[in-house]
Structure prediction request, 228 residues.
Amino acid sequence: GAVVSQHPSRVICKSGTSVKIECRSLDFQATTMFWYRQFPKQSLMLMATSNEGSKATYEQGVEKDKFLINHASLTLSTLTVTSAHPEDSSFYICSAKGPGNEQFFGPGTRLTVL
Amino acid sequence: AQSVTQLGSHVSVSEGALVLLRCNYSSSVPPYLFWYVQYPNQGLQLLLKYTSAATLVKGINGFEAEFKKSETSFHLTKPSAHMSDAAEYFCAVSRNSGNTPLVFGKGTRLSVIA
Prediction:
């Protein structure tokens, strides 16, 4: 139990296009999800906290208009990278608060912007 | 504010040797501490966590960590390294186990030499 999935696992897009990444809690409901970003050979940096039914809380330095987060249901949060550029290429990982008040991580999505 | 420092970005051990990955934390409140493992192009897997119960925490795959408040440390150990232990290891701290995001260290890459 307590599985978090992400889709797609890998995406390549052209500069200027938008990309949507989904984070789903498969067997539990998650009122809170987190989005992290990981650059090559670096640690995970929190981008935003996503709360079901309310606006996401973004970390300092993260452009909310560029990284749109929607947490419309208790099992799904989406991250949309708008007008993507090569510097947005990264590994995006979500986590969800689940059973036992523990965070469970998704497998990550590798975004490459050409 | 909370922070984590992982000493050594890369640790190399021989197969069968002791694994020691160092983590020191800073927290103004009693911390929750975690160790995660990440294999290439994958998400994070929880190895173990400290939640103010026993100071010696046993995790999966033979790993364990000891919380030492006086040293503000939470070092990860394994008596005998296996080739399959080669991965990236992250120490993380949080104010609780689920409601707040994790603050990660920069990670330590473990190499196991045959």
Remarks:
- The mean pLDDT of chain A is 93.
- The first strand of chain A starts at residue 4 and ends at 7.
- Chain A touches chain B through 25 residues (CB under 8 Å).
